[in-house]
Hints:
By secondary structure, the protein is of the alpha+beta class. The chain has one domain (1-50, 71-143, 206-361): phage-related protein like fold. The protein is 23% helix and 34% strand. Strands 7, 8, 10, 11, 12, 13, 14, 15, 16 and 20 form a ten-stranded mixed sheet that branches. Helix 1 (5-11) runs antiparallel to helix 2 (15-26) and helix 2 (15-26) packs across helix 5. The two termini are 44 Å apart. The relative contact order is 0.20.
Amino acid sequence: MSISLAEASKLSTDILLKGIIETIVKDSPILQELPFIQIVGNSLKYNRESVLPTVNFYDVADTWVESTPEFEQVTAALKILGGDADVDNFLKSTRSNIQDLEAAVIEQKAKALRHEFEKSFIQGNSTTNAKQFDGIHKVAGGTAWTASTAYVVGDVVVPEAGEENGFRYVCTVAGTSHSANPVWPTVEGGTIKETGGVTWVCRFGGNLSAGTGAAGTPTPGALSLTKLDSLIDLVRGAKPDILLMSRLSRRRIQVLARAAGSNLEVGQGKLGEPVQFYNGIRVAVSDWVLDNLGPSNNCTTIYAFQMGEGAVCGLTSPEMIQVERLGSLETKDAARTRIKWYCSLALFSTVNAAMLSWMSS
């Protein structure tokens, strides 16, 4: 069973904790919607759906063909996110008649917690920083193919940066990649064999470039509504729950929509705030979606994903966000409160999240 932070705040009987959760959720489109699975232990090992089995129509006395699904076993470890908030006892005693100093300090710490979670949700990379969990950019983006590299059966790649075509490629025969990238097939189940012997099979993926997707075009192109619709179509089973982007991407979509004689729809969010929609999908803006987070420094990314236990889902310890009053400090006249959260992120199916890179300048 999963639960969102907004719902968790309703169940909390601790006034301070309830206020912290509400502060974290209030200005975060991600945390307003994202459900969390409460896990016991320090990690979750799960099977990420990779390829569905096939079925066929058969005639009487036909030979039936066996087909099994393919999964990728993934381990998502909980990471420790938190910080200490110290309140000077003298200031608390002499200044709290104007404002509750302790509440103000803790509120700012809660906002910092929200910012850091959103940043890691998008940009997190446990390879470069083992203290972080892997974010949506890494788990949806995949690993780019590289030239003259030995690959083994089961390795998964996407075309080189700027040439992403919405598919991923699974190694079925080990070998070494060629010095020049291959012409990738774009039909599910299609295969290609490189001169070094490595053979790839084409599978549905979630990494798309606004460029042509052809070999030799390592730079994404300009954003268009057609490419945005293609991004939405990469998320299979149902529409994405959210389109997560930078302010620049939203401005560009608004320009394109007006040029097409329409505009972004306006509706109401979970907390009653006005929100925008494209094709019935919420448009969410995060300052942690950078305008230089892509194949080159002048690229930005739009993410589309479903949220839930079978798609993109947060992971947390059973306590969720915790508040500890550590009390008075020995070395200074202050009281300390610690806010901590054991959290992570899981993508249960490769077809439930996708990303689109486009040239922002």
